[in-house]
From TrEMBL:
This is ABC transporter ATP-binding protein. PROSITE patterns: ABC_TRANSPORTER_1 (PS00211), ABC_TRANSPORTER_2 (PS50893). It comes from the Bacteria. It comes from Caproiciproducens faecalis. InterPro entries: AAA+_ATPase, ABC_transporter-like_ATP-bd, ABC_transporter-like_CS, ABC_transpr_MalK/UgpC-like, Mo/tungstate-bd_C_term_dom, P-loop_NTPase, Transp-assoc_OB_typ2. Keywords: ATP-binding, Nucleotide-binding, Transport. Residues 5-235 form the ABC transporter domain. One of its GO terms (molecular function) is ATP binding.
Length: 384
């Protein structure tokens, strides 16, 4: 049986060092929820608190309505998958997967039936009699996943499960994990520092820094309307440009350092007028126009420093007349690649760009969905 997880006012300390100061979170029954952040942000610490491997200095942890703060880890009915696979090297694939069922004293006929089922589910049934040292990293991780799932845990916890695999295997395995999690329907808490991995597999993501959740939401919401400047720069690539937010005759504008001004209406009603802001523009949100008579009269004037042709797209690295630097992605056109030294004008896609208060670093945009207190009964990110 899968469960929802509720965390209220969690505190974690190591001596005098507070790793998690005050964290609350609801993880929905059946969703794949990712804790994402840089090394040392507290994501693995929080996962281990859920598992019962770390002490809890404050707050309350629940599986559905049952508090688990003092519950023995062995009684929490969790499955775990680690980055180093942690499968037994002296046991065959089949015996590795059977291990948890034998520990639970499941009848032999059920052990065989369940083991066969999960070996097939993760597509390693043909390797059932092999020893782990004869498997690839991806195959070993599949075995670890089968072993965690075969005991039918209430919660599956995954700590950087793909970090030891090469790039191609990581992409393959994240698809495997996403599909299996969806098929089994088990509540899964997934820890990673890889933002692309998190975006690819998650129903929702909590972006963490210094033990604090900065944004919790669906991948597309976090990417399109990040809650603050940290999230904007951690998720994907962003160009950060200084500007001023203005209101004139009831209209809102962004004015950049060179005087380039654009209408900018999708902002909060209480956004402070005449304030300094930082504009976050993804590389695809800055549009390139070669300088010349056909170029826009208003824009950010720049010079191309370098370019990288990647087939479908070309990445331009540019220096603005203000001294700021930016990366721009443009669809490749073989007959019009711009060489280094080319003068260009950049215009801003105002529908997609974001602006943040320069003092607080908080977003001034409408449409920022950021709630760690989502209802546990809503599954797979369907509510807004």
């Amino acid at each position: 049986m899968s469960v929802g997880i509720k965390i209220k006012d969690a505190v974690k300390k190591y001596g005098q060092n507070t790793v998690i100061p005050d964290l609350s979170l609801n993880i929905r029954n059946g969703e794949l929820f990712t804790l994402l952040g840089p090394s040392g942000c507290g994501k693995t610490t929080l996962l281990r608190m859920i598992a019962g491997f770390n002490s809890i200095e404050g707050g309350e942890f629940y599986f559905n309505d049952k508090q688990i703060n003092t519950m023995d880890p062995g009684k929490r009915n969790i499955g775990m998958v680690f980055q180093n696979y942690a499968i037994f090297p002296n046991m065959s694939v089949r015996k590795n997967v059977e291990f948890g069922l034998k520990t639970k004293k499941v009848p032999p006929e059920t052990i065989k039936e369940e083991t066969d089922k999960f070996l097939k589910l993760v597509h390693v049934d043909q390797y059932a009699d092999r020893m782990p040292d004869r498997l690839s990293g991806g195959q070993q991780q599949r075995v670890a996943l089968a072993r965690a799932l075969v005991i039918r845990p209430d919660v599956l916890l995954m700590d950087e499960p793909l970090s030891n695999l090469d790039a191609k295997l990581r992409v393959e395995m994240r698809t495997v994990i996403k599909n299996i999690q969806r098929d089994v329907g088990i509540t899964t808490v997934y820890v990673t520092h890889d933002q692309e991995e998190a975006m690819a597999i998650s129903d929702r993501i909590a972006v963490m820094k210094d033990g604090v959740i900065h944004h919790c939401g669906k991948p597309k919401d976090i990417y399109q309307r990040p809650a603050d400047l940290f999230v904007a720069t951690f998720i994907g690539k962003s160009n950060l440009l200084k500007a001023r937010f203005l209101t004139e005759s009831g209209r809102h504008y962004l004015e950049f350092l060179n005087g380039y001004r654009v209408p900018f209406e999708k902002v909060l009603k209480n956004a402070p007028d005449q304030s300094d802001v930082v504009v976050s523009a993804r590389p695809e949100e800055l549009l390139v126009h070669p300088a010349g008579e056909n170029a826009p009269k208003e824009g950010l004037r720049a010079v191309i420093s370098d370019s990288v042709f990647l087939g479908l797209n070309t990445h331009y690295f540019v220096k603005l007349e203000t001294g700021e630097e930016a990366e721009v992605i443009q669809e490749s056109r073989i007959d019009s690649l711009l060489p280094p030294g080319s003068k260009i004008i950049l215009t801003l896609n105002v529908e997609k760009a974001n602006a943040f208060d320069a003092q607080t670093t908080k977003s001034i945009m409408e449409g920022v969905n950021n709630s760690t207190d989502a209802p546990a009964e809503a599954v797979n990110g369907e509510e807004g």
